[in-house]
Write a structure and sequence with these properties.
2 copies of one chain form a homodimer. With 244 residues, chain A is mainly α. Helix content of chain A is 71%, strand content 3%. In chain A, strands 1-2 form a two-stranded antiparallel ribbon. The interface between A and B is large, with 63 and 63 residues. Chain B binds a DNA duplex (30 and 30 nucleotides) through helix 4. Chains A, B: One of its GO terms (molecular function) is DNA binding. Chains A, B: This is Transcriptional regulator. Chains A, B: Residues 23-93 form the HTH gntR-type domain. Chains A, B: Keywords: DNA-binding, Transcription, Transcription regulation.
DNA sequence: AAGCAAAGGTCTTCCGCCATACCTTATGGC
DNA sequence: GCCATAAGGTATGGCGGAAGACCTTTGCTT
């Protein structure tokens, strides 16, 4: 083994060998539940899965999950209701709520890393979808998701936007890609929560969405990729501008 | 919340809420160490990081790591040497060794998912690298990695090929992308280990590598993307052909 | 030849998390 | 109006894994 080889290998080990569990099980579970809320998969007022179910899905014990939910309750993010048809419900975000936690999370995000990774996933998903030529039912889901962003009240725009992109990721046909995108998008949403929502950007975004969906449905991979790249570049520029 | 909305959310929760720890810490650590070996980051005869160091990097205790290493020793994959300048060394693969484990791992891989995800990452990395216009030192690393695949003995080709692609991923400037690619590539290598290595494919692969690197160094994003997509499609077709 | 340093090998203590069972509350159906 | 049911709330015992100190081996350095 040459010297260069050894050097390369050493550097790479550092990149590949990552902690097998980021923090303890509790923290990871907390991140996941927060992710579900940040992605808007459970909207304000909606109910999270029952504790037993959720714990099972996350692969943790109910005791640990309840630790997580306790924290979320204390932060005023969710509310537990007892009795049949009870559950854990997502509360409307009380502005300041979680502000500290948010700022802390955002502080140690590598923004360039995130934006690049996100772009790669999104552009790739768009291209795959276009190349597949989405079948009727799937094309319908995409159109539906797009339409929902159009008649969205301002307060729900981010959520429906997220859902549109998530739909595209799903339709790419790679569950791994979907999961990775979900994680990346949750982090992007954290960043977006730190900057103002400008109506002008929103309109621009709408046009790009429309062009993107059309390209995908036309099976025009080139155009789909270009549209998505432009769309991502827009968000990226916005975030870099406000946060850099 | 409309019915459709609820339905979507339910389906998506299943995709996003994944077990917080796939198996126990031991199994995850085993996967990671195997990954390092499968990627060829530590070549045959090479030494893994010291136990204390490795355990620290993986975020597990030394006791647990030693469980992992014990298994690898029993499988004849590594050898422990005591004393100063001792360590855990990777043994030459004794053909049958790990064959069972390999077949088991391969059996429950979603091949389409993996190949799609891999293509997205690779194509994205190539495009990012081309768009960045690699600086001198970084361009040098890429050229170096390419040259190493050219004068590779057949037995070491897979490893150097992996290292070339890994270099490209690194140069994309997104650590997350690098890490994800490493994981995906380790799984791809598992699949490749199940099929014969054809010299004809290898030559073809070489030409594609050369074209790819040239495009990247030229800063021609279009060409880089096209070259990489073709390259991935080649491997994918090969794997689908042999394993489908 | 002595000894120091760096590695693997061993042991003990303690905490976190899991599994399980059971209690309490609220609602809709009979 | 009762009560079955589905949800959250509580308590207990057991085990896996983390932390850290220590022992043993070996080879280079002086």
């Amino acid at each position: 083994m040459s010297r260069t080889d050894a050097h390369d290998a050493h550097d790479r080990l550092a990149q590949v060998l990552r902690p097998v569990r980021a923090g303890n099980g509790f923290e990871e579970a907390l991140e996941q539940v927060l992710q579900v809320m940040r992605l808007g998969l459970v909207p304000t007022g909606g109910r999270l899965p029952a504790e037993r179910d959720l714990a099972h899905r996350l692969g943790i014990s109910r005791v640990t999950l309840r630790e997580v939910l306790k924290v979320l309750q204390e932060q005023g993010l969710v509310e537990a209701r007892r009795g049949r048809y009870g559950g854990t419900f997502v509360l409307p975000r009380a502005e300041a709520a979680g502000g500290d936690a948010l700022r802390r999370r955002v502080a140690d995000v590598d923004i360039e890393d995130l934006l690049r990774f996100r772009e790669v996933l999104e552009v790739g998903a768009a291209e795959l979808c276009a190349a597949h030529r989405l079948s009727g039912e799937r094309a319908g889901r995409l159109r539906e998701a797009l339409a929902r962003t159009h008649d969205a009240p301002l307060a729900d725009y981010r959520r429906r936007d997220t859902l549109l992109h998530l739909t595209l990721a799903e339709l790419s046909g790679s569950p791994t890609l979907t999961a990775q995108y979900a994680g990346a998008r949750a982090r992007v949403n954290d960043l977006l929560d730190c900057i103002p929502l400008l109506v002008r950007n929103l309109e621009h975004s709408q046009r790009q969405h429309t062009a993107l969906v059309e390209a995908v449905l036309d099976g025009d991979a080139e155009a789909a990729r270009a549209a998505m790249r432009e769309h991502c570049a827009g968000t990226a520029a916005l975030l870099r501008g406000f946060l850099a």
